[in-house]
From TrEMBL, chains A, B:
<feature type="domain" description="HTH asnC-type">
    <location>
        <begin position="5"/>
        <end position="66"/>
    </location>
</feature>
<keyword id="KW-0238">DNA-binding</keyword>
<dbReference type="InterPro" id="IPR036388">
    <property type="entry name" value="WH-like_DNA-bd_sf"/>
</dbReference>
<dbReference type="Pfam" id="PF01037">
    <property type="entry name" value="AsnC_trans_reg"/>
</dbReference>
<protein>
    <submittedName>
        <fullName>Leucine-responsive regulatory protein</fullName>
    </submittedName>
</protein>
<dbReference type="InterPro" id="IPR000485">
    <property type="entry name" value="AsnC-type_HTH_dom"/>
</dbReference>
<dbReference type="Pfam" id="PF13412">
    <property type="entry name" value="HTH_24"/>
</dbReference>
<dbReference type="GO" id="GO:0006355">
    <property type="term" value="P:regulation of DNA-templated transcription"/>
</dbReference>
<dbReference type="GO" id="GO:0005829">
    <property type="term" value="C:cytosol"/>
</dbReference>
<keyword id="KW-0805">Transcription regulation</keyword>
<dbReference type="InterPro" id="IPR019888">
    <property type="entry name" value="Tscrpt_reg_AsnC-like"/>
</dbReference>
<dbReference type="GO" id="GO:0043200">
    <property type="term" value="P:response to amino acid"/>
</dbReference>
<keyword id="KW-0804">Transcription</keyword>
<dbReference type="InterPro" id="IPR011991">
    <property type="entry name" value="ArsR-like_HTH"/>
</dbReference>
<dbReference type="InterPro" id="IPR036390">
    <property type="entry name" value="WH_DNA-bd_sf"/>
</dbReference>
<dbReference type="InterPro" id="IPR011008">
    <property type="entry name" value="Dimeric_a/b-barrel"/>
</dbReference>
<dbReference type="GO" id="GO:0043565">
    <property type="term" value="F:sequence-specific DNA binding"/>
</dbReference>
DNA sequence: AGTGAAAAACAATGGCG
DNA sequence: CGCCATTGTTTTTCACT
């Protein structure tokens, strides 16, 4: 399942994560390859799972999603069962964009996107805090987003 | 530039952010519309900027990017010029996936993806801290990522 | 606002150098 | 890996409701 990537592959991946709407011929122009070779390499990269999926990136504000927040969650009683329930819950919540366990004094960091502060308050007070495992929640609201492209750095 | 979205549009956007590789005919099956209507609506949504771009989502680990970190940055001397330089710098850094100004005691939160801890250390010590505006940096490393799909919640 | 069919563009494959 | 030709799909446009 693993694969050796050469310079063409890396360039192709970089181009595709920037703009997956390019045709194989256009991609070929950018990276210096023929369209048919681009097609073959793409298939390999998709099969190998290096390209996970293709996605449309949407404008949150145009969809009324005005609030992005980072929510740090500290768990209290570290029972396996409660922790498991908490993890299942955040994974299933559509407002949770990202969820990671972190080093440091906060157990989990959630990135949450919602229409307004009322919706954020609802999530914190009515969904997160009632969980048995949750001891403490601390939210910070993004006032300004300088960058949010989530483009991986490819050399 | 603004547009009225009906139920078809919302379903179409939801389907496209999940999987932009679907053909218009497949999308039509999912949302209950003919391929030609899907094509017309897509064009509208693209022109209106609601669909910002199409992207390939890549597997970070397959590309050797093993470390995700959240770095909170506190600025010291709040001179406009130093803050501007800081903002330009983080915006230009490819390792910075996201950068937001936050409410609370941390001025900026950066999501950073790098190959290893050495690269993270380099960014913090040799790029961030030498900036005049930067007073304090605190990094937390993601030990486990439960969710990282960045799919917007569409009702 | 929608369908269905035609025309144009594109992707994917195979053969050859 | 480039180039070319072929085939099948897909997108887009058009006529019509």
């Amino acid at each position: 399942m693993t694969i050796a990537l050469d310079g063409f592959d890396v360039k192709l991946l970089a181009a595709l994560q920037n703009n997956a709407a390019l045709t194989n011929a256009e991609l070929g122009d950018v990276i210096g390859l023929s369209a048919s070779q681009v097609s073959r390499r793409r298939q390999k990269l998709e099969e190998a799972g290096i390209i996970r999926r293709y996605r449309a990136a949407l404008d949150p504000e145009a969809l009324g999603l005005m609030v992005t927040a980072y929510v740090g969650v500290t768990l209290g009683a570290h029972s396996r069962e409660n922790a498991r329930k908490f993890r299942n819950m955040v994974t299933a919540m559509p407002e949770v964009q990202e969820a990671h366990t972190l080093t440091g004094d906060v157990d989990y960091m959630l990135k949450i996107v919602v229409p307004d502060l009322k919706a954020l308050s609802h999530i914190i007070n009515d969904e997160l805090l009632p969980q048995e495992a949750v001891h403490h929640v601390r939210s910070s609201i993004a006032m300004e987003t300088l960058k949010d492209d989530n483009l991986l750095p490819l050399k």
